Amino acid sequence: MTGRLLILTLVAVVGYSVYSRYAVRHYDPMWSDLKDGQKISDAIHLAEAKCRQKLGRYANLKEIIGNDCVTHEVDLTSAEIEGFALTLDASSVKYSFTLNPVDELRLASFYSDESHILRIGTRSAPANASSRQVNSALESYP
User: Fold this and answer.
1) DSSP state, residue 108
2) What is the pLDDT of residues 26-41, one digit of tens each?
3) Could you tell me whether strands 80-81 and 95-101 are parallel, antiparallel, or unpaired per DSSP bridges?
4) With CB atoms 3.0 to 4.6 Å apart as the test, which of 12, 43, 59, 140 could cross-link to 74 if both were Cys?
């Protein structure tokens, strides 16, 4: 009987742990922001790489669209993407961008550049070049 109770308790604790991780990651707005911010960031980095290969330099958003450097996973034809406002600054040798929340459900802001390091901030303290890296934010997030 004691062994059975121990097993049931263990199953309940493990089950709750798995459920709470699932619930947080799939229903928490910040987790959604992290996933979407990473997806948009990846699309921008890929578009910049395509343009650099085509043009021999990095490109601004208008040039990315005009030179068919966009990817089909994220629509980069607008300055507003999935509830984030995109600001992209580019020169021939470097680029950087910010994603700031415009949708009231968005909580996080993001910054990245040609280093591909994604940095995270909040609505009230937008991300910049010295903000915390997303990898370290994910490590401390449930």
Assistant:
1) E
2) 457 788 899 999 999 9
3) unpaired
4) 43
- Nearest Cα to 47, choosing from 30, 72, 29? 72
pTM for this model (two decimals) = 0.75
Query: Domain segments of the chain: what residues?
Result: 29-140
Nearest Cα to Cα of residue 49 among 88, 82, 95, 110:
95
Beta-strand (E) ranges in the chain?
80-81, 84-90, 95-101, 108-113, 119-122, 132-133
d(CA 44, CA 70): 8
Whether the Cβ atoms of residue 47 and residue 76 lie closer than 8 Å to each other: yes
Per residue in 73-107, pLDDT tens? 788 777 888 999 999 999 999 999 999 999 888 99
